[in-house]
Amino acid sequence: RRQRQMCIRDRDDSEGDIGRVDHIFRAGKLGNDVLVVIGDAGERLVPMIDDVIVEVDLGEGVIRVRLLEGM
User: Fold this and answer.
1) What is the pLDDT of residues 17-29, one digit of tens each?
2) Full strand arrangement of the beta sheet holding 33-39
């Protein structure tokens, strides 16, 4: 079975599609998970925290995010 990639989109679509999830890692022993997203702007690290993740739609294969300053 082929694994489907999740598309990352800006919440208000001002940036549209940000990229695709390449992989996930945990930041430190007690840290949160971080998505490594590859897109036109290169690699971005997107923390899996409530302030950033707005919606996860598994059916559509989309994660909507609210990008914080510096992301």
Assistant:
1) 889 899 999 988 8
2) 42-47, 33-39, 17-26, 7-10, 62-65, 53-57
